[in-house]
What does this fold into?
Amino acid sequence: MRAVAADKATNSVYIVRFKDRPAVAYRGKLDGFPRTQPLAGERIDRTSTAVRRYVGLLDGQHDAALEAVGVPQSQKLYDYRYSFNGVAATMSASQAAELAARPEVFSVAPQFFAKPQTDNSPEFVGLEGKNKLWDRLGGRRNAGKGVVVGVLDTGVWPEHASFSDRKNPHRGRFYRNQRGRRVFNPVIFPDPPTSWNGTCQSGERWSTSDCNNKLIGARWFVEGFEANQIIEEDYLSPRDADGHGSHTASTAAGRGGVSASILGNDLGKISGMAPRAHVAVYKVCWNGGQGGCAGADLVAAIDQAVADGVDVINYSIGSDSPVLLSGDSVSFLFANEAGVFTATSAGNAGPGAGTVGSPAVAPWVTSVGASTQDRAFVGTVVLGNGERYRGASVTRGIAEQRIVYAADAGNELCLPGEFTNDGLIEGNIVLCDRGVNARVEKSFAVQQAGGVGMVLANVVPNDTIFTDTHYVPSVHLIRKRGNAVRSYIAEAGEDATARLIGGRRHDVAGNRMASFSSRGPNGGAPDIITPDVTAPGVQVLAANTPTPFTGAGQPGQMFQAIAGTSMSSPHVAGIAALLTQRHGLWSPAMMESALITTARRNVTKENGAKADPFDYGGGHVRATRSDNPGLVYDADFDDYLDFLRGTGDVASDEGAEIPDPSNLNLATIGVADLAGIQTVTRTVTNVGPSALYTANTTNAPRGVTMSVNPPLLRLNTGESATYEVTFTVTDDAQVNEWAFGSLNWTDGDHSVRSPVAVRPVPIAAPDEVLGDGNSGDISYDVTFGYSGEFAAEPRGLEPATEYEDTVQDDPNNSFDPGGAGITTHEVTVAEGTEYARFSLFDEETDGEDDLDLYVFNADGEFVGGSGSGTSEEQVDLVAPPAGVYTVYVHGWETDGPSADYTLFEWQVSSADRGNMTVDAPEDATLGETAEVTVAWDGLADDTRYMGAVTYHDTDAPADYRDGLIGQTIVRVDVGEPSGP
It folds into this structure.
């Protein structure tokens, strides 16, 4: 094994972003430095004189800033120049703070960690057949020709047939045919395009000769993750020891006509979506340590991929946090500006609402959900009583054996090494419950204990079943069928037997969302619908690595049929490569628009109920339809900046009007707070023949009318036009509930459908306002979603309860209530509390510390946490039940052995403390805006206060608590007295 670092270094890795634009977005404003931003349809040429000069300027700024705060060059890990202007370096927290204060620096943040989001699909997405997209490109042998698909993942297995550039993908340069003759196997893939500037980086079990005219580039990035953290079974090179990267790369752009089999089962031929495209891999995810993908490496790989000249990026990676401007997200924003399309997985945290993470929440990437296709690999459990239960399987079958329940051996979850009676397992088929540990690890545990087969049973209804490459013959059953097998074992006892029929291809209905697929609404930008589309993400048959690390899968298997939004994303990346080939001047936004507006909606939720845009965005991709969308919605870098000003993530100029995020020119339309009436603007461009388009608004969201002005658009090819959509709430609207519909533009040949999601609210008001001083006032606007009586009432202001304490540094950077680096506070939440908050502040610690906050209720259940890259942490609880809550302060990164801090806690009830007044109108008018003024007086020095303004409709229906229709939190900080 490679040595794994036991202690955390004094310094940490930080990602520093500078204010100047990276090379792909630099427009030539500096004297002596000409424009480096590529023209539409072109890629940046990092070898050009202009680019090299500008990059040299950026490097000089980086080095000067690091030197100014005492960070030596030896601690710099990466320079970012092309899609991100900045550096990654190890430094102390105090150096990071000093660097952040420099005028040329935009931000400094500890590096983040992300993780990979873990046949028949070309036909299912509409690529194969007469006049389908492959046919329009000259057939499968030309589909993707000249396009470079970059894949950021766990690497690739270069010897795999999916990445061969030779006529016979399953053979080397020479081979013997059936007659025993030595035959030359010629290269049939063309040379890389002249715009390609990448390389094939050598490393462990990898040489430059492992690349070819199909796999044209390979790099690996490990400085952020740290090489000494990686397990021995992984490779310090682009070589894949996980299988995830090989799978995604072959799905996006693996060559066609590759014969696939798993564990001796012949499963037919497979192809990537863009089989003739070139592939460039960037290994950024590793096994070992905390596992996953380090932010410093991710940003470096995106930066390099854009500089190398990729046309499309597949990014089956993400975090659960819905952050708009994470380092990788910012890099993709500039990659978008450079004309590079990015497909990313929506995440595997579904089916709960609001589970899409970063960077999928950003509108400049195309986020992809996962759904089933019309082919499944089905295995069957045949019990001794004759009952047969179908499930998912790609393994071989097994003759009749005794079947036992793992719980009878003290280990119902089949955890490795946890069976209390191996004798019961040996020689038998074992029923294992799903949950806690990896599914494949369960079959590994069965094999290690002597078992010969496994039946894996779901314990949650509607959960997806998977075709993993198990260590023993296995069938995965839904909960109902697993319960039946469990009951049979209990009744038959020692006489219980079963046989397994191995996985076989079956035609199924498909078009059902996978239970794991993450859903909207968008937690980072509620006005943006996510995911954008859905694509096949269940039982996707593609490439594997034959050397997976122990417990991760059966060794020696070159193929796998696995599931995840990681698997659906490369479908869209591959289709985008085909659109790039067909429409070289289309921007990434235009391609995304074409995918969304032409998608089909015959997709259900995982339980069979009707799905909506928060499940699938525009719907299931239809590749051929996206080639001819009629109209498209385009957006550029400046549009995205306006959007970010509207969300508050980028500052607006003083006095400037704040843009409405709903007006970002996307093919989807979202309004998170529809207070009565709102008008949204869109611009379309005709990429088809001259035509007259008519707006169809018959599918308006329930309880909302939708009108379009103008309702007719006559456009010649290449012309653009702007229209407005006005949403008006009606009496039958469900307040505070999302409603869905669509707007459709038709010309007789094209149907350009935009999904719509709106949430009617009785009032749109700021979530929070902040003031200061012993006395003062704040005014702000509210917009009404109804007409009638209105009242605004004060709650509080309540002074904070303060807890001063010390927390030790956690050497493991891992929250464990009973572990190192934890200080505990018990807080009693009183009866009648309407709102509770727990906060830490950077200025209330004794140094440049990174402390985190976790809150558990009286039953020991986790109810809230906050873990940013600083000590600015906040946990809010709405109407929390009374009881004793436990608040943990975690010393994730202190700038010494420990950190002194103050924890602040507020509890706001319905009580008016007499120190705050509210001036507001007494009547509300639908769609109108009014001013509310909050004033306070008599507050104590050196105290932080919190309260609320609650809004009431006195004629509201009974389902409103006391007519409550909303609230705004009011924070007032009073400093120490000044002067004598």
Observations:
- The two ends are 66 Å apart (CA to CA).
